[in-house]
Write a structure and sequence with these properties.
Radius of gyration of chain A: 26 Å
Structural class of chain A: mainly alpha
Shape of chain B: globular
Number of helices of chain B: 8
CATH superfamily of chain B: Phenylalanyl-trna Synthetase, Chain B, domain 3
Shape of chain A: elongated
Helix content of chain B: 25-40%
Number of domains of chain A: 2
Number of strands of chain A: 3
Strand order of the largest sheet of chain B: 1-3-8-4
Distance between the termini of chain A: 85 Å
Strand content of chain B: 15-25%
Largest sheet of chain B: 4 strands, antiparallel
Strand content of chain A: 5-15%
Oligomer: heterodimer
Helix content of chain A: 40-55%
Strand order of the largest sheet of chain A: 1-2-3
Order of helices and strands of chain A: HHEEHEH
Number of strands of chain B: 8
Radius of gyration of chain B: 17 Å
């Protein structure tokens, strides 16, 4: 004897839509967190060519793809965070002992900071400082002024 | 002077007309709604006041805001709804994100005349999805419903695939929900009365919808008939 039961899928669809909303917010947050620091893959292709009510399978696929993007974005940001932490440690050591990091440059970009600028380990008084071992970390003066760029062009 | 004439005007009068959502669609998407106001107006160059407002809006809007915008409640609500109906909001952008994209690309909110500028001001200020139709072409109440078998969008070749979500009047679909407008129903040079339509989704407060409609209609009205 066959067993047939009508199943109302609406609550399941509603739950999947709720999850899609939560994942979308999380992905948006991760994208904003990585903006200017690292490229986060946030694209999830359209499920339909025109707007319509998605069925359970389509919502599940959409939820899974969003979850995958969120997981990838977290990994990307975590890896970037580790690189930036290493660079911060390098900068700390560089400032403490510039002579051990001759000519090394750490940019604000390397630390995940906005705008331009760099810390550069270089000798005082040029060749004399090199010969004498007088090294220091020099902080650049930031982004070039637009007027200066225009003058160069 | 009559008492009515001296009373300050609060909001838009008459209040926005509420359309309806097909019951099975409303059951799937609680919070989905459609409302509109009608206003006398016609396409044309925007007055200096409106262009000044656009310039001010441009000065208040920067690149990082475009990225952070998607985390704000109303733009986020539309993004989520786009996902839920199968669209990719990074390809088919929500109205407010499209404006943000255009602002970054063009360096400013460029004036495109009325009523486009009125919609730009209202969408950018509130985040609510608005669009304009030629009110004289619409028949009866507007609704959000799915397309019936064999139904098509006027002016578009082929039939709509069954279940496509549309904005429709009592006669036929007048546009895709967050998509193309049917031929002849959009605002054209001969239009004299405009319907400003807001689509509300779950998470967008009614007061934001009313404010958006009021702002767009008031801007069009101020520009003169």
């Amino acid at each position: 004897m066959g067993l047939r039961a009508a199943v109302d899928e609406r609550p399941a669809r509603a739950e999947l839509r709720r999850q899609v909303g939560r994942l979308e917010r999380e992905l948006s947050g991760l994208l904003a967190e990585g903006f200017g620091r690292v490229t986060v893959d946030y694209r999830v292709a359209a499920v339909a060519a025109a707007p319509r009510v998605l069925d359970l399978g389509e919502l599940e696929r959409l939820r899974d793809e969003l979850a995958e993007r969120v997981a990838d974005a977290r990994v990307t940001l975590h890896e970037q965070g580790e690189v930036e932490a290493q660079n911060r440690e390098l900068l700390r050591q560089m400032i403490a002992a510039p002579k051990d990091f001759k000519w090394a440059i750490v940019t604000r970009d390397d630390l995940g900071l906005p705008s331009c600028g760099a810390w550069h380990s270089r000798p005082r008084l040029g060749p004399i400082g090199m010969l004498m071992g007088w090294w220091r970390v020099k902080v650049s003066s930031g982004c070039p002024l637009s007027g200066r760029l225009a003058a160069v062009e | 002077m009559s008492p009515e004439a001296s009373e300050p005007r609060l909001g838009w009068n008459p209040a926005p007309t509420q359309g309806w959502v097909a019951p099975h669609i409303a059951a799937e998407f609680p919070g989905l709604g459609i409302s509109w106001v009608e206003v006398d107006g016609h396409p044309g160059r925007s007055p200096e006041g409106v262009r000044h407002h656009l310039r001010q809006l441009s000065d208040r809007f920067y690149g990082p805001q475009a990225i952070q915008m998607r985390e704000q409640p109303i733009p986020w609500a539309y993004r989520v709804f786009y996902r839920q109906i199968g669209l990719d909001p990074d390809r088919t952008r929500t109205p407010v994100e499209q404006l943000a994209f255009d602002r970054i690309r063009d360096g400013a909110f460029k004036s495109e005349g009325m009523p486009a500028d009125a919609l730009t001001v209202a969408i950018a200020e509130t985040g609510v999805a608005l669009r304009a139709f030629d009110a004289d072409r619409l028949r009866g109440s507007l609704c959000v419903r799915d397309s019936a078998p064999g139904e098509s969008l006027p002016g578009q070749p082929g039939e709509l695939s069954q279940g496509t979500l549309t904005i429709a009047d009592e006669k036929c679909p007048v546009g895709l929900l967050f998509g193309e407008t049917a031929a002849g129903y959009g605002v054209e040079p001969g239009s004299r009365r405009l319907a400003i339509v807001a689509v509300q989704v779950n998470g967008v407060p009614q007061i934001a919808v009313s404010e958006a409609l009021w702002m767009a209609a008031a801007t069009i009205e101020a520009a003169g008939p």
